[in-house]
Task: structure prediction
Amino acid sequence: MMRCPNCRTKDIGKLGVNSYYCWGCYIELTLENGVLHLHQVELDGSLSSLDDLFDEQERREGEAYGH
Result:
């Protein structure tokens, strides 16, 4: 089961192919080449990247699944 790298919750919903939403901290996660990309949804609906807050190891697919 996927875990959010930001709040560590497992309360993740699927938005589409390789696209997820964390109900714990309200961020969007996109899985690309085994690495999660995190985005904050702004009031106008645009996305702001949160990738710079986490190193790539924290965003790797195995880490997201608790491996």
Summary: Residues 12-64 form one domain. The mean pLDDT is 87. The chain has one domain: 12-64.
